[in-house]
Amino acid sequence: MTTPVQVTGQILDIRRAGAYHVISLTAPGISEATRPGHFVTLGMGGDESSMLLRRAFAIHRVQSRGVYGGTLDIVVGVHGKGTRWLVDRRRHDPVDIVGPLGRPFVLPKQSVPTVLVGGGYGSAPLFMLAEQLRERGCRVDVVLGAASEDRLYGALELKRLASTLTITTDDGSMGTRGRVTDVLPDLMAQGDAAVVYACGPMPMLQRVAEIASDRGAYSQCAVEEAMACGVGVCMTCVLPVIGKDGVTRMLRSCTEGPVFAGDRVRWDEVGSIPPDTLGAPTSGGH
After folding, report:
1. I need a labelling partner for 65 at 20 to 30 A (CA). Which of 17, 186, 212, 239 fits?
2. Which residues span the domain enclosing 275?
3. Over the chain, what is the mean pLDDT?
4. d(CA 227, CA 253)
């Protein structure tokens, strides 16, 4: 496990990308240790802020050397006061950063055909992953999906990294009308995919994991759970996962995840504690 560090970074650049913002930050000591699938948490609102909860962001890209030392990029969708504060920062503004956090994607030991699936800005961690898979000689097919064209992220760049790129949008504004899971079975069959990597909304991950299992492939899913602390203390991001011993445990997305084996997550029961979970409360409450 990588030991996370807490640093005061600086905003280097904020640029618009469709519906999202890409933020570049100095992050010495974090970028050098980052692997695809790791994330960071950022303090919101500065020292005097009433926004106590940190926000978690998948690490999109890192650069371990340069004028500023280590830097990293995150992709941000504005959803509330915290993310609005973040995208309104200026160059050289300080930001408190903790990372790299979580368990990253596991890379195959041999060169095998792979498919990468991204939903919305869930595509952010797939760039580093695609690069490292290519370095290992793996075939990399990518499928990106979103509600509309402006909510896709990084299609042009991923096209350069991938063997093939397939795009789907709910409204048909770009690529195939529909969802990533509509085109995934054929894509897996064409490339004879052995491993599927996915990041995006939970319903998408559930279906990707099911399709991969149906085809005898291994899936790794980076879950998008709300993480209040990011370091395993608050227990807000737990979900039921079946261990190798067949026992279900409530695991924390921030420390045991965010990447899980797709066939191990009890997707239908995310948000609840299944009765057969280790340590689950009994009906009598004792």
Report:
1. 17
2. 226-286
3. 92
4. 8
